[in-house]
Amino acid sequence: MKPIQVGLLGIGTVGSGTFEVLQRNQEEIKRRAGRGIEVTMVADLDVARAKSIVGPNVQVVDDARKVIANPDIDIVVELIGGYGIAKQLVLEAIAAGKHVVTANKALLAVHGTEIFAAAHQKGVMVAFEAAVAGGIPIIKALREGLTANRIQWLAGIINGTTNFILSEMRDKGLAFDDVLKQAQALGYAEADPTFDIEGVDAAHKATIMSAIAFGVPVQFDKAYVEGITKLESQDIKYADQLGYRIKLLGISKRTAAGIELRVHPCLVPAKRLIANVEGAMNAVMVQADAVGTTLYYGKGAGSEPTASAVIADLVDITRLHTADPLNRVPHLAFQPDAMSSLPILPMDQIVTSYYLRLRVADQAGVLAKVTGILAHADISIDAVLQREAGEGESHTDLIILTHDCVEAKMNQAIAEMQQLSTVLAPITRIRKEELN
Q1: Contacts of 137 (CB under 8 A, 6+ apart)
Q2: Residues 1-14: pLDDT tens digits?
């Protein structure tokens, strides 16, 4: 049978890894797919560099539209990234009747609804395993492996840069800025790390997972996003003393009122497996009614781990290339006409528990005033830790862990506590997730 012909749009880190793994494991992949899969055309602005990677047997052009226009290309792999030209090229490829594989989480989180609708209408597949958690097959697990389940929640460490930074801050007691520079030097963080450290990258991925888990449209604009830039090493130290680790989590939960979709730092009990995921590794926990809790762990980025996911999508499309489009797995796991209209909840309606750190005057009655405000807001306290003031110090840190409450109540209580004359600095608030 004639091999499936693939065109790569971009041959950077992931593209070169995809080409290399396809070449190296060609026979194994053919045995699994039922026919060969060959990259026969590449578009890249740096034509000379692209030719040095793929050799003389692959056509290299500097215009991506030439790949899309080639009638022999069956699958277009978009590895350009971003929202701009990538969106146009993906929609053009779909309009030309090509299947699409993409690692572009930003594109799908923002424009996925439009792209999937176009693909459904044209009867082609858009596969995106590589868009979330690199080499971990979490999309396939959610779309297929857990299809018998009613998923209740998922929580993931889905950005390796921030996890590396938090691990280093905890292990070495370093400040955020120092570890960020180290992450950049090691290649974990970009020169402009904003998308990573502000939680945007994780929110793109959480948006996609939430849509698949709960059968809702992709709605990145409704996600709550908070990064790690305001975390201090002392909070990581206090959390450790209380039996917790701080992780940046992407969280989505099904509730009676709607869907939670949020990314922010969390205190996670140290005994949870996900709390012990260190360095640049990724992990996703999924809680479902039939199977219980499952955990998916592995490399969330890198040339060959991400290529592994891209090629898994190529194999899937190859197997289903001639199948009736109506009998394929839907892009977001649920049939397009059966998507849920459950709303994404605003953050002030979320119920969770909290870690609070207050810099307070070292004098009698301070704790009573603070706990009085919490009691008046009907917020119960789980634990209190007070650092002894050093010799000559007139202030100390007061750490409070609360039980669950609605975020709106906590916002009001923090505003009231901040007005106390004995509270000497802005109050630090980190949400706490037991994940049990």
Answers
A1: 129, 296, 309, 312
A2: 899 999 999 999 99
